[in-house]
Amino acid sequence: MASGSHLLNDDTEKKKLLQEAEQAFGEGKYWECLVACRKAFYLEFEHRFDVQGLAKDDLLAGLASDAPYYAREEGYVENNVRNPFDYIVRDHRKIDADLAKHRGLTTAYIGTSGMASASAASFFCRFT
Fold first, then answer.
1. Mean pLDDT of all residues in 96-119
2. Residue % of the chain over a pLDDT of 90
3. Helix or strand or coil: residue 40?
4. At what angle do helices 13-26 and 30-44 cross, to 10 degrees?
5. pLDDT tens digit string along 15-60?
6. What 3-state class would DSSP assign to 16?
7. pTM here?
8. What distance in Å separates the CA atoms of residue 63 and residue 119, rounded to the nearest whole number?
9. Left if phi > 0, otherwise alpha if psi is -120 to 50, otherwise beta: which for 12?
10. Which of 110, 95, 55, 93 shows the shortest CA–CA distance to 77?
């Protein structure tokens, strides 16, 4: 993510997802809103914490990864990944720093395992 970037600055997949989320929210389709927001959050922040490439001994994946160091160690994936969600190993300090660049938000507002209510969806969709 470029320093000072904004989720809606250019015509990207993230922008399209957030526009879908806004429309779904306006129509009262809160589940669809949550899913679109969650996808945009992954693309903007979490994709860097994906350790799936590390399981394949992909050196570039290891260098580009923002996953915590313990998750980059040899054997981590084999010993700890049980389902596709386990491939994302977040460093909340890094995510918080990125969110702070976007109007001072932190994961305390968004939650560490996704959003669970329409009010959370409303907050996240409006943050953009």
1. 57
2. 23
3. helix
4. 160
5. 999 999 999 999 999 999 999 999 998 888 788 888 887 766 655 5
6. helix
7. 0.59
8. 37
9. beta
10. 55
Q: What are phi and psi of 50, to 5 degrees?
A: -80, 120
Write out the two tokens for 49.
């914490």
Which tokens hold the place of 44? 């903007």
- 122: tokens are 């409303």
User: Are the C-beta atoms of 99 and 12 separated by less than 8 Å?
Assistant: no
Q: Quick one: how far is CA 19 from the chain centroid? A: 17
Element housing 62 (H / E): helix 59-64
d(CA 17, CA 117): 18
Q: Looking at residue 7, what is its pLDDT?
A: 53
Give me the amino acid identity at 37: C
Distance, CA of 116 to CA of 74 (rounded, Å): 34
